[in-house]
Design goal:
The protein is mainly alpha-helical. It has helices at about 5-15, 25-50, 55-145. The chain folds into two domains: about 1-55, no CATH class; about 55-145.
C-alpha cells in the first residue's frame, strides 16, 4: 500500500472527503463551451444587423442606454470605494498609529533596560571573571616555573 493510499484511507476514516481531481478539467471545458457560444452568438448578431431591414437604430439606442447605466453604476462604485478608502485612512491614523507608538515606546524601554543591565551587571561580572582567569593563569605559570 502506497503512502497516498494510506493518507486517503485515514482521511476517509476521519470524515474528510478526498478532493476531486477532474473538476478543474471539467470547468475548463465548460468555460471553453461558453466562449464558443458567445463567439457564435456575436457572429450571428453581426450577420443579422447587416440585413437591410434590421432595427439597428433601436438596438444602438438600447446599447447607449445600457452603457450609460453601466457608467452610472461604476461611478457609484467609485464613490463607495473612495469613502471606504477614507475610512481606512482614518482607521490607520486613529487606531493603528497609537498601537504602533505604544509598541515603539515599549521597545525603547526594553532597549534601555537591556543597556542598563549590560552596563551595571554583565560588564562588572565579565571583568571580575577575566581578572580571576588572569590570576589563575598566573598561578599556573608560577607553578610551572617552580618545578
Amino acid at each position: 500500500m502506497s503512502e497516498d493510499d494510506r493518507i486517503e484511507r485515514a482521511a476517509k476514516a476521519e470524515g474528510f472527503e478526498p478532493e476531486k481531481r477532474g473538476s478543474s478539467r471539467g470547468f475548463g471545458i465548460f468555460i471553453g463551451i461558453i466562449a464558443v457560444l458567445l463567439l457564435v452568438g456575436a457572429v450571428a448578431m453581426i450577420l443579422w444587423l447587416i440585413q437591410p431591414n434590421a432595427p439597428t437604430e433601436t438596438l444602438r439606442d438600447v446599447f447607449i442606454i445600457l452603457v450609460a447605466f453601466e457608467f452610472m453604476i461604476i461611478g457609484i462604485a467609485l464613490v463607495v470605494l473612495i469613502i471606504q478608502l477614507a475610512r481606512l485612512v482614518n482607521l490607520l491614523n486613529n487606531e493603528v498609529r497609537p498601537i504602533l507608538d505604544s509598541a515603539n515606546e515599549a521597545a525603547n524601554t526594553m532597549r534601555g533596560t537591556a543597556r542598563f543591565l549590560s552596563d551595571k551587571l554583565v560588564n562588572p561580572v565579565v571583568k571580575v571573571n577575566a581578572g580571576m582567569a588572569a590570576v589563575r593563569r598566573a598561578l599556573d605559570l608560577l607553578k610551572f616555573w617552580g618545578r
